[in-house]
Amino acid sequence: MLSNFKVVLVETSHPGNIGAVARAMKNMQMHELRLVTPKFFPHADATARASGADDVLKSACVYPDLPAAIADCRIVLGASARDRTISWPALTARQCAEKWGGNPHNSPNIGLVFGRENSGLKNHELDLCHYLLRIPCNKAYSSLNLAAAVQVVCYELFVASGQEQTTNVGDQGEVPIATTEQMEAFYLHLQQTMADIGFLHPERSKSIMRRLRRIFNRTQLDTKELDILRGILRFSQNHNTK
Amino acid sequence: MLSNFKVVLVETSHPGNIGAVARAMKNMQMHELRLVTPKFFPHADATARASGADDVLKSACVYPDLPAAIADCRIVLGASARDRTISWPALTARQCAEKWGGNPHNSPNIGLVFGRENSGLKNHELDLCHYLLRIPCNKAYSSLNLAAAVQVVCYELFVASGQEQTTNVGDQGEVPIATTEQMEAFYLHLQQTMADIGFLHPERSKSIMRRLRRIFNRTQLDTKELDILRGILRFSQNHNTK
Fold first, then answer.
1. Contact A102/A160 with Cβ under 8 angstroms?
2. What was the pLDDT predicted at A87?
């Protein structure tokens, strides 16, 4: 999946960043990393920061220049934090994901090019790109760490690819939400119990019940939780009659 | 902006990660970092990785436990990569951003809690959270680097806050796109020039012109570019008549 996206790092100085990029990619199911004349590679720092994504690191290819690295790409995006004076079409990471992330199988090879840690991409490198790729951020402090930038872009592509199962973690081992009927039975039981234990004055019952309803309706009880609460009510009723 | 969001790191082992988190936060205009019993802090590695976000680091507060760190928060989200067996409501980073990022001024204090690098948050810590906070990712390799996770969440909040100016970089120093009238004048000029230089057979002119139109219409020329092209046409016409 997302195998048509190639992450290209140009002249990375810190090998640790290369490792962190490999991890960020694998987290988002991307695997093809291309390196244009990295300062140090392979390197122990890269392996350490990859932590489990060494397969991405191992299969990374090194290229002598950017044209070689993107030769098989039909669309090339160059990450850029700076505003450029030349007119150049720009896409945000999300726009890029919406455009190409949704249907990776039908998409051509797409190169995502990230420049040097300190100075980004040079103009002659951006000339090879079809779009600038921008990550929305604080204008006063706009330089993301290299791996952080790759993480955001790959994350957007992953979300757009629709691969993630959207079931909430909370939905697992799933207990159904209580029905209105079950909730009404619960409220009746609650009201009866409060009368039984002498808490509820008949004339105050309405406003108190309204408040209690507000609490429990908001909570969206599931049937198991409801069973527990009604168990408590039963015990409380029995206790009172002893 | 986004000042109601507090990033809380629980028992971070590597001080470098604390620095990288500070940078990730500042990139997305977030400033309040809270640390629950970090292993080492302050530390040179934290300062190095913060690179320009030392203000976030300097103002970070250290707390003896999680309850103290989130005492003033009305909503608490606990980042979790693992699927939990207990039923717990979960929000993705984007859902969280849509819920609270859009109108930060009217939002209560919200704690974003991130656990230990290796083991995340313990169950008794998650008990203090109203929601699990999930980042969609590769199920087979789901552990993001701590700072990468913070980066994605803060990025989503920043995007939802609508603070970023949506002007394309390419729109700067803005030259208007050519009007249809200007384009038609250009096509006429182009056709005339091709006839003048002897390129265009009258009977082939129609299909050639259609192809050329397709190219230049797709390109969305601005008026300056159009001037340049027409200059070239003029020179080409004059050259031929010499």
1. yes
2. 63
